[in-house]
Amino acid sequence: MEYGRAAPSLTDEQRIDWLCLIRSENIGPRTFRTLLNHYGSARAALDRLPDLARRGGAARTPHVYSRADAARELKASSAKGIYLAALGEPDYPRRLAMIDDAPPLLAIRGQRSMLALPMIAIVGARNASAAGVKFAERIARELGEAGYGIASGLARGIDAGAHRASLSTGTVAVLAGGHDHIYPPEHASLAQAIATDGALISEMPLGWEPRARDFPRRNRLISGLALGVVVIEAARRSGSLITARMALEQGREVFVVPGSPLDPRCEGSNGLLKQGATFVTEVADITGVLEPIMGRPAELLEAPEPASLQPPEPPAKARELIVELLGPTPVGLDDLVRMSGASPAVVRTVLLELELAGRIARHGGGQVSLSYASDRPSTAAEK
What CA–CA distance (Å, rounded) separates 239 from 352? Predict the structure, then answer.
């Protein structure tokens, strides 16, 4: 199965291989894609991890998620009614598959058919005003009646209002933690209602309790699912603004409901309007922009064929120069190629080695920086 393209479902053994790879230390969605492009299969990539990490300067062999642990996770997920859909399979949300850091495996609970609806994300303040929640409910209800599904993050305030108003027409909640750790806890009954009539999704394993850093990761999935994101009441520093930024990076539309200039909850969203976001006072403001987009097919990102089963080891001098060029400020691949004089293939291989050694972090727009942190949190087994 080629990564990122529509294809028949994985076999049980392949699904376990994919789970082992994505749950292994220092492996995130982009690294997963690179490894499959290099080696052609998750199993072949797993065999190469220790050597690649050693070449990147790892002080120890990275933890590799065992097949026994993967088999247990699949069994436990199935027992809770959770399906692990692989990117490219029919049940995987098609627009989410378009983003460059789409989760290789997506844990889905509820009505999988909901994920085939054209989605619009609605996000906003947790401490929302009564007027803000009322407008979110109205927009969600009317969009649902127009045939759209509603995606949000199950948070207090705007998110919860949007979910409740679209339960009968189709809603998808994106979780920051595992399916057995609903946040906030008081939304457990809402989550159950969504599981009955809509769907909940997560890229995290069962047992994973969400942390602060997991919410921005979740936000990229909210925007990635959708044709566009509607922001209702967002402060200057808020997760909703992160979702809007990610939506723009993913080529999604950003819509904003204007708020009072005297309300600090609207300072960030009003700022988005100044930057050119689409002004929204009624559903027609959204559907008028999105209807032409819906007429264009959602094309999956295509991965190149594996170039070889074992990329050549980069010259030591090239590796040293590329590491020297890296720092705490994110930099793009093109800049590293230009400044190092190395080929794109060599730069990609060095970055792969460094990432598996835990020495670089990934950022939006394909940029990287020197850091111990990887682009993926530790698995539950590593906590």
Answer: 29
Instruction: Find tokens 């050549």 and name the residue.
Output: 312
* Annotated domain spans of the chain: 96-294
Q: DSSP class of residue 357?
A: T
Place of tokens 């969605």: 29
**pLDDT, greater one: 274 or 296:** 274
Give the global pTM: 0.85
Strands of the chain (E only): list them. Answer: 82-86, 105-110, 119-124, 149-152, 171-174, 199-202, 228-232, 253-257, 278-279, 360-362, 368-370
The CA distance from 57 to 359, in Å, is: 8
pLDDT digit string, tens, across residues 143-161:
999 999 999 999 999 999 9
Residue 363: Cβ-neighbour burial (10 angstroms; 0-12, 13-18, 19+): middle
Question: DSSP character for 277?
Answer: P
- Considering the segment(s) 96-294 as one domain, its CATH architecture is 3-Layer(aba) Sandwich (3.40)
